[in-house]
Amino acid sequence: MKTPTSLSSPFTNSARRPGLLLAVLAALAFGAGCQRPANQASNADISATYRLADVDGKAMPASVNHDGTRLEIRAGEFVIRPDGTCSSETTFVPPSGTEVHRKVDAKYTRTDNQLRMKWQGAGITLGSVTGDRFTMTNEGMVFVYRR
């Protein structure tokens, strides 16, 4: 009995068409590894330096209450890089009166406009980018940064 040869799969008769089989396998391997999930845009579109505009609705410099302690936040900067890292720098004055400059680094993951930041030596903070604005809530305070 004769076997039908009308099958059109690239894997049929692969001994006769090894080049085609290798091309299909290569396309599958490389194509699957290079595609970005549908809900994931490039990090380049949000990568920028954002300046602290306000904390808890108060423009910079802002006097805020943090865990019962009054602080003056003088300035801040948040940098989002396309490689999945970010950093926050803040200048503030605690009750001691001595100005403090603090920089912390994090790695972030992104889903749509939401960022999940894992801080070195600390916890996790959530934030979002909308247009030229980056917003994050940290320690119960809302920080708004602008490009």
Which range best describes the helical content: under 10%, 10-25%, 25-40%, 40-55%, 55-70% or over 70%?
Answer: 10-25%
How are the strands of the largest sheet arranged? 1-4-5-6-7-8-9-10
Number of helices: 1
**Unreliable parts:** 1-40
Give a structural overview.
The model is unreliable at 1-40 (pLDDT under 50). The protein has an eight-stranded antiparallel β-barrel with strand order 1-4-5-6-7-8-9-10. The longest helix has 17 residues, at 18-34. It is mainly beta and 147 residues long. The chain is built from one helix and ten strands, in the order H-E-E-E-E-E-E-E-E-E-E. It has two domains: 9-38, no CATH class; 43-146, Lipocalin (Beta Barrel).
For the structure shown, list the relevant keywords.
147 residues; mainly beta; Lipocalin; 2 domains; 50% strand; disordered N terminus
What's this entry about, in short?
The chain contains 1 helix and 10 strands. The chain has one helix spanning 18-34; strands at 48-55, 58-59, 62-66, 69-80, 85-93, 100-111, 114-119, 124-130, 133-138, 141-146.
Per-chain topology:
Blueprint: H1 18-34, E1 48-55, E2 58-59, E3 62-66, E4 69-80, E5 85-93, E6 100-111, E7 114-119, E8 124-130, E9 133-138, E10 141-146
Antiparallel strand pairs: 1-2, 1-4, 1-10, 3-4, 4-5, 5-6, 6-7, 7-8, 8-9, 9-10
